[in-house]
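>> received
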Amino acid sequence: MKNNLISYPFLLVLILSCNTPVHQIPEDFTAPVLPVTDTYHGVEITDHYRYMEDLQSEKVQKWIRTQAGYTSEVLKNLEHKENFFKRLEEVDKGKPYSIYGLQRMKNGEVFYIKRKSDENQGKLYYRDSWSDEERLLLDPEAMSKGKEQHYSLEFYNASPEGNYVVYGLAQGGSEETVIHVLDMKTGEETGDVIDRIETAYNIPQWWNEDGFFYCRRQLLEPGTPETEIYKNTMAFYHRLGDQLEKDKAIFGRGLSSSVSMLDVDFPSLRLDDVFDYIIGKIKHGDSGEITLYTKSRNQIFNDDVPWKLVCDVPDSVVAYTWFNEYIYLFSARNAPRYKVVRTPLRNPDFNSAEVVFPPSDLVYRNATRTSDRLYFSALDGGYNRLIEYDPAGGTSKQLPLPDNESSYIFSASHYLQDIYITSNAWTHAGKDQTYNHSTGTFQELNLEPPGEFDDPGWLKSERILVKSHDGVEVPLSLIYRKGLKMDGKNPTLLSGYGSYGSVSGVGYYTSRLPWLEKGGIYAIAHIRGGGEFGKQWHLAGRMQNKPNTWKDFIACAEYLIEKNYTSTGYLAGQGGSAGGITIGRAITERPDLFQAAIINVGDLDMLRIETTTNGVPNIKEFGTVKDEAGFKGLLSMSSLHHVQDGVDYPAVLLTHGINDPRVAPWTSAKMTARLQAATSGQRPILFRVDFGAGHGIGSTKSQRFDQMADQMAFLFWQFGL
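>> returned
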């Protein structure tokens, strides 16, 4: 059989007409094995597909396009694909439009992103006030017409007086962001264009109406290893209208003897127009712990004035905010679930910082600032609570919000007293409200019309504690239809992440309805490596402790089967990005437990991660092969290296965007090739590639819905439904 699309249809008819799913990749699709052997600390490791790391190779390109084309043909012909896609669109159209990304100004002006249900992307709008007519400012869809890759709006930030808007555009989900500036008076661009923008940890900050601070990656010569891309990032000041050569470096490695910084660190600046200090933040790769410095606002351009250290890595600070002369720090130092302390910025001293909120059962996460209050977010049994704090009097109180919902602040301003709050449950959308402490009252917001599917009424959720391999109890959240018969035959999708201290928060998504309507169960495993129980929970699934992450996931899968929610023939696991470690190792350790698996942009070859663009920043989370303990830890979590020949693996759908800057697409390619060659069973291993997407950031609605429909149809096919 030839490796081209012409030969696909006949085979597809045969495959899709069978009652039992079969292994549909023809033998001559199998990738050639060209072994390369490396020795790590005396241990020899063979890489069968090292050549795939050269994505520009004609041989690799051909293989990826062959796999992608074949997978596309298989998926689009699945019985449920079209129905799932149509239903996703229908439930999305249940709400005419959605609004997010609000920025409220001191004079009542408001900027926001709005996506109508018939649009692929959000667009930036402006109003003089909520009662005035809206004005369209930026339309990524219109900008994308005639382009090979679509544009996405990565960020925006209006200047203090609202005269300008700085915004970032990227193409094809690449996150290769370019700064532009819009003049609000003329409606035209100012001509200030800056590329190589680093937006992962900071967006441009306005100094005043004349200019802003921004973070930029270094310029590399052609042929420079990709591992250098994220090194020596620098924070600059740009004055509108100036040539980029005139931009002054403000915060970065080697600029001041008072600041200690490595080449792999990410520097950024935070400020506002009513704050007397500027915060210099250093993000140490993807580590949660940050280093903070401060300098008086009127001294920022004076190189001779040293920066003052606020906190460093041993202080275990992961978040901060400020109010008047104090900076508030969220620290895990002697506080496994975090505490909140404050220290004066005039003379910061972490060791003598005043405790605002001592360690407790709450997991303190971040704070939002208004003109006269701070609002702290804290996890309480998995639900997010809001605590109002008066910096002047030191008093605090928890806002009276529903116990079975998580509440979040989605708009606040240091000019204004009120906050905008949205609440969420697993089974229904919450209400958007405004709260003002001066009256102590909540008022319903009408920014968006109510959605037809906001509260289906037929959904139920459970939160269960599951004992893992070592006796530790792991939270498991379940969503399913009321009255669902627990007979072991319910199609179940179990998802998990478990890295960076990230929290899988409570949320309602209409995009889950097509799955739930058909009797499916959606399960979320809150596994170690995440942050559900603070720093201790994160560290228990990090580096050498990483096996806890997938063992927790396996324990949750076993529980679902034991309690008859589902059975092996109807159970699938899913993980994305760092969650690729979770699902990849779950199916390689317990291939008998799952009928199918979905791996989205997954970290799958952990021994080679350091050779990639985003590999060096991840050393803080996963370790390095350069030391023996790090190598052993990475080997244990590297799914690719645990695939064994002759094992009957579950059906696997691997997905990746070819423009992904965070996880190299060849990791999914290698895993696809290895599984296809190794599996002894008849279940398919498919590689879905989107040539107009990246890590998922910046993807259009159509791209997201098409992938979701593919995934649900793939699972129903494998479940024999």
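>> The longest strand covers residues 459-467.
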